[in-house]
Amino acid sequence: MPDDLSENLAFLCSHYPSIAEICRRIGINRQQFNKYLAGQSRPSRANMRRLCDFFGVTEAEMLSEPSQLRSLVAVRSQPLAAPELAGPMTHVERLLRASASLRRYEGFYFRYFYSFSQPGRIMKSFARLYHVDGRFYWKNLEPIREDGRGPATAINKYEGAALFLTNRIYIVEYETMQANCITQVTLYPSYHSRIGRLTGVQTGGPTRRGRRPGASLVALEHLGHNVDVRKALYACGLFRPDAPEIPEGIPRLVRNVIPDEGHVLEAEEP
């Protein structure tokens, strides 16, 4: 018989396109997950932690009465009132006023970095930097496709904002499905007439690693303002560093190595 846990899991899963995508992103066997949903088995402590990390709830909330969890999710989904936004927006507005224009950086990009959850593979995603009313925004799509074969099994979607502060480009993005994961990217600007490549460092907490904070080097390849979006998305996925889909020089730019005399992960200028 299903219990509170299985009912809560089913409710949380209803916010995603498919069970298969959830299992892939968490790294849990589909058959085992189906047993959790049916109330036939309970997650181990490790798997419970991974489930809670992924759905953005505590273990106590996961095990609470279903009506209580639904109410909690509904409250978290409600838009904030103006008084609640006033404090945080003070800091956002100050940064926006200090930001220089990013107009020359607008357009589409391929984004490259070593995957946090698939060791040895480079993630190649598709992103866009654009402006609305003088503010600059960012969208990033990560089609999950092994070695460029076949249709994507899932697409991770991120949105955020971009700033140009003290000669560095900053991008803050969040995962749009649950809004429980933030990535912050810091990039060198380009001093060439053509943008070409941008390099930097990004931080985040991927779900398959238990949301342990991590950092990686990242490279952006500027594609211009007019691209075939469908073709660009089909070129994305997880690839070996020597795959033809990964341009020459990119593996070196995103290789995460701290030199013997170093103490922190630092990006080179391209």
Task: Explain what this protein looks like in three dimensions.
The chain is 30% helix and 29% strand. It is α+β, with helices and mostly antiparallel strands and 270 residues long. The chain folds into two domains: 4-77, lambda repressor-like DNA-binding domains (434 Repressor (Amino-terminal Domain)); 85-254, Quinohemoprotein amine dehydrogenase alpha subunit, domain 2 (Lipocalin, Beta Barrel), CATH 2.40.128. An eight-stranded antiparallel barrel has the order 1-2-3-4-5-6-7-8. Strand 4 and strand 5 form a beta hairpin. The longest helix is centred in the middle third of the chain and has 17 residues, at 82-98. It is globular. Residues 18-62 form the HTH cro/C1-type domain. GO terms for molecular function: DNA binding. Pfam families: HTH_31 (PF13560). This is XRE family transcriptional regulator.
